[in-house]
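Need a sequence for this fold. Nothing fancy.
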């Protein structure tokens, strides 16, 4: 049964070798023109600053340009948190739109397993750590399915969503498909912030983010991971988790998430979905340009 579930999960995620992008050099697209401008109102910027004591606290980045650009590229959620000041901005409705998680959910799965080990609910073997490393560094789906089945399946994801109070997200309706967990950019920011604030003891937290910093340039399925936030300034020491999936809900998803900066100051999340008639390169270019616009405006 485990082999059958794994095969179905891989098929559902659509990570077929013929669609893989082994090496991709981003050709940054121009900013969208009239179409993006006309849709700006639909991406009303957040006025409240999460965690801020004063309206005078400067947001981590001017997100307007990224919002306008993303509006012309399909559905996109963009959210940025400055953990030093507590200020947060996002691109309005897009950041609160639930999308299929693809491989981004692997971080949540790993964190929940490490939490259970830390509180003594489970004991992890060397093989469990090896699978966790492969799941995160190489974004390996077989390793993810093995850990998912071993540690409770859909209940593993549901428990993590509940523990981190991610109210905009939901475990997959069909428990076979962990990659169809629904997430929002806002919730993913909240998750990373929760982990950095102590949801795991320091050794476990450092282990988790250490794996994310070691992400392989090419994933185990041959898909190139050097897009979005993974192609930014190396001095930012980014801990990255990417995601890509087609076409479980009739859409193609490309996501880029990262914790970066000195003392893990920033959390940046970029989620996208668009029609499967458009190629992978569309999502890769979108996340890369949004990342460029966001990273270029961060306070260093």
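Here you go.
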């Amino acid at each position: 049964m485990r082999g059958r579930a794994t095969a179905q999960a891989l098929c559902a995620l659509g990570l077929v070798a013929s669609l893989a992008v082994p090496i991709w050099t981003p050709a940054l697209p121009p900013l969208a023109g009239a179409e993006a401008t006309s849709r700006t109102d639909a991406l009303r910027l957040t006025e409240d600053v999460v965690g801020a004591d004063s309206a005078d606290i400067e947001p981590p980045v001017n997100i307007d340009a990224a919002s306008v650009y993303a509006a012309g590229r399909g559905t996109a959620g963009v959210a940025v948190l400055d953990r030093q000041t507590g200020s947060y901005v996002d691109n309005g409705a897009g950041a609160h739109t639930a999308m299929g998680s693809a491989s981004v959910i692997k971080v949540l799965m790993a964190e929940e397993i490490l939490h259970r080990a830390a509180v003594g609910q489970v004991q992890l073997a060397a093989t469990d750590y090896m699978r966790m490393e492969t799941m995160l560094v190489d974004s390996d789906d077989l390793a993810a399915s093995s850990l998912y089945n071993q540690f409770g399946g859909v209940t593993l994801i549901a428990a993590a969503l509940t523990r981190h109070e991610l109210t905009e997200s939901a475990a997959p309706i069909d428990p076979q498909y962990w990659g169809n967990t629904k997430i929002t950019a806002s919730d993913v920011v909240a998750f990373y912030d929760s982990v950095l604030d102590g949801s795991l003891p320091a050794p476990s937290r450092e282990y988790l983010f250490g794996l994310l910093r070691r992400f392989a340039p090419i994933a185990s399925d041959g898909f190139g991971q050097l897009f979005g936030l993974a192609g930014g300034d190396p001095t930012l020491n980014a801990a990255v988790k990417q995601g890509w999936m087609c076409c479980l809900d009739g859409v193609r998803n490309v996501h880029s998430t990262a914790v970066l900066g000195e003392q893990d100051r920033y959390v940046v999340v970029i989620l996208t979905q668009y029609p499967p008639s458009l190629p992978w390169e569309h999502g890769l270019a979108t996340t890369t340009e949004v990342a460029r616009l966001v990273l270029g405006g961060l306070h260093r």
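For context: Residues 1-55 have pLDDT under 50 and may be disordered.
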